[in-house]
Amino acid sequence: MSNFLSRRFWEERDVELYIGKLLRYGVILSSIITITGGIIYISQHPDQQLNFKTFVGAPNYLRELTTLLPAVIKFDGMAIIQLGVAVLIATPILRIAFSIVAFAIEKDRMYIVITCIVLAIIVSNMIFGLEG
């Protein structure tokens, strides 16, 4: 087997195929997590009446990973659904990071810079985004 980080390894394979698989598996994983969370949530709240007249946002503990993950460990259905959404959001970000690695192996400096700028914009907006 060729070295994973060698240029020859990447020239012999279609990087777009790997990126497609990454996106596909990310969406499938997100769907599985979200459906599982939905089933757990419905089983935990069987008699809850829905109110579509007023919008109520997600509770504060579901807005940050530091408080979300302990709730997932406790099998909180709403937290598991939110984790599925987080995985769905993370999937294209991982695609960008994977592209940076692929461009670095191919030594394509222009695309490395452009992709790093895109990743920096997305990450900075996630970290420093305005709350509204």
From TrEMBL:
<feature type="transmembrane region" description="Helical">
    <location>
        <begin position="110"/>
        <end position="130"/>
    </location>
</feature>
<dbReference type="InterPro" id="IPR012861">
    <property type="entry name" value="DUF1634"/>
</dbReference>
<feature type="transmembrane region" description="Helical">
    <location>
        <begin position="22"/>
        <end position="42"/>
    </location>
</feature>
<protein>
    <submittedName>
        <fullName>Uncharacterized membrane protein</fullName>
    </submittedName>
</protein>
<feature type="transmembrane region" description="Helical">
    <location>
        <begin position="79"/>
        <end position="98"/>
    </location>
</feature>
<keyword id="KW-0812">Transmembrane</keyword>
<keyword id="KW-0472">Membrane</keyword>
<keyword id="KW-1133">Transmembrane helix</keyword>
<dbReference type="Pfam" id="PF07843">
    <property type="entry name" value="DUF1634"/>
</dbReference>
